[in-house]
Structure formats: structure tokens, C-alpha cells
Specification:
The protein is about 50% helix and about 20% strand. The chain is of the alpha+beta class. Bound molecules: zinc ion. Zinc ion binds next to α3.
């Protein structure tokens, strides 16, 4: 048998915070270790009791009944719990008969899977809400730029003027494409904020259509931001690099907008990975 699960792993397990790989290996161990199963069950009950106040996770009534039933079974001989001493749930161990262990393990796995699924759903929900907020924000800022009588903060068609203007103003750097698709011009840029993060807003024209391209530092997991989106004839599209999140918005033809977005993406790759 492999080593017992650490308290950290048990805690993460009960929180549904293990990766799929970690969960698989923990499950494998639990399937053959009554001691860790008791500990995991104890942690899980403790956490769900704590979480109930915050309504974060409520075990279904059938699960509670099942656990009550198991806990009521007579005491019998459990194998020794190894040399782990910290936070030993001796009471929980003592109350679970050895015969009940397999059933307890099954119930535990079901309850942990529920937590795991619930966490994944919450994560997806959060990502989708973040995406909606981002789209709304870039849309509003672009419309404000179109309507604004104020000139851009830096007005230049020269990328060698626009890029250095941001130095010291934003906590990241980016590249501007050397060659632009036909009929595309750079107008200038603004320093702005998206979600309270300093953001570079580059303003281009595709023919007569204005384009705003927002660049900001990539935060955490930008993985699930499924752009493009469309709203009132405006198109929103974007991409992430290892350190940047880029979103473009315009009422221009989406194919032309995609060309410009792709040129900007190429420019980020070009400098950072010169071998490719
Ligand atoms: Zn174990």
C-alpha cells in the first residue's frame, strides 16, 4: 500500500480542490485504506458542517441518513491507524465498524464527487460571468471612445511612438505589429482600466470603422473566456498569451477584425519566441 494520505490532501479532498489526477490517486488509496477513509469522511463531515452556515455545500438528506446508519453500527476491530498522530479522528474511527467501512467509502466517494462536480460548475459559472462582464466593459469603453469629443491620450500612427508612451504607465509590455493588414491604420491610444486593471487601449481604423484593442496583464486563469461575442452590431474577439489578455471590439467586418487581431497576436509571439 502507498503512504497514507497527508492531512493537506485529505483537506483538499474534502474541499473538492484536488486535480483530477490527485483525486484519482487519492481514490485509489481510499479504496484500500480504512484508516484514511475514516479520516476523509471525518474531514468531509466537518467541512460540510462548517460550510452549512455559508450554504456552500449541503449534503443531500439521503447521504446524511446513510451516515447516521453507519455511525450507529456496533464497534469492531479496525486495523491500526499507522503512525499518523495529527488531528486523529479517533472518535469517528471508533464508531465505524469494520464492516461498515466499505459502505462508508462508497458513500464518501459519492459525496466527494458531488463536491468536485459542484466546484467545477461554480468555476465555469464564474468564468462565464467574468466573460460577460469583460464583454460589457470593453463594449462600453469602445462606445465611449466613439462618442467622446476628447482626443486620444497619444495620437500617432507610428508604433514607435505609441508603444514607448506606455512605459512606466502599465505593469506589462506588449508589441505592436510591424505591418498592418491593408486599409488598417493606427490612430493612437489611451491608458484606461478594465476590471480595475491598468489597460492599454489601442485605437485603429479598419476603413471607416474604429477598432479598440484592449491589452492588459493576464490574471489567473483566462482559459475559459470564450470570445468572440457579438452585441448590437459590434464584434468582440480576443486571445490570451502567457502574460497578456487581449480583447478587440469594433463594428467592422468580423473577418477584417480577425485579421487585425491575428496580426497583433503574431506580434506578441514574434518577440517572445524568436525561434518559432
Ligand atoms: Zn491510508
Amino acid at each position: 500500500m502507498t503512504d497514507h494520505l497527508s492531512d493537506g490532501i485529505l483537506s483538499a479532498l474534502a474541499d473538492g480542490e484536488l486535480t483530477a489526477d490527485q483525486l484519482a490517486s487519492a481514490n485509489k488509496h481510499l479504496a484500500e485504506c480504512p484508516s484514511c477513509t475514516s479520516s476523509a469522511l471525518y474531514q468531509s463531515l466537518l467541512k460540510s458542517a462548517t460550510a452549512r452556515a455559508g450554504h456552500r455545500y449541503t449534503p443531500p438528506p439521503q447521504l446524511r441518513e446513510r451516515l447516521a446508519l453507519l455511525a450507529a453500527q456496533p464497534n469492531s476491530q479496525l486495523p491500526p491507524r499507522g503512525n499518523r498522530t495529527a488531528v486523529s479522528p479517533s472518535r469517528a474511527v471508533g464508531r465505524f465498524g469494520y464492516l461498515g467501512w466499505a459502505a462508508a467509502a462508497a458513500v464518501l466517494l459519492v459525496s466527494l464527487s458531488l463536491v468536485f462536480i459542484q466546484r467545477a460548475a461554480q468555476k465555469a459559472e464564474r468564468a462565464s460571468a467574468e466573460r460577460a462582464a469583460l464583454v460589457t466593459e470593453v463594449f462600453d469603453q469602445h462606445v465611449a471612445t466613439l462618442a467622446d469629443s476628447q482626443p486620444l491620450q497619444v495620437i500617432s500612427t507610428d508604433r514607435h511612438t505609441v508603444k514607448p508612451w506606455f512605459q512606466g504607465k502599465i505593469p506589462f509590455s506588449f508589441n505592436l505589429p510591424q505591418g498592418l493588414p491593408s486599409d488598417v491604420t493606427l490612430d493612437g491610444a489611451n491608458l484606461t482600466y478594465l476590471g480595475n486593471q491598468p489597460t492599454a487601449q489601442l485605437v485603429y481604423n479598419i476603413g471607416k470603422h474604429r477598432v479598440s484593442v484592449f491589452l492588459r496583464q493576464r490574471s489567473g486563469s483566462a482559459e475559459a473566456r470564450e470570445l468572440p461575442a457579438e452585441s448590437s452590431g459590434f464584434h468582440v474577439m480576443g486571445f490570451s498569451t502567457s502574460d497578456l489578455e487581449v480583447v478587440a471590439v469594433s463594428d467592422a467586418d468580423p473577418v477584417r477584425l480577425a485579421e487585425l487581431t491575428s496580426a497583433i497576436r503574431q506580434a506578441q509571439m514574434g518577440d517572445r519566441q524568436p525561434t518559432q
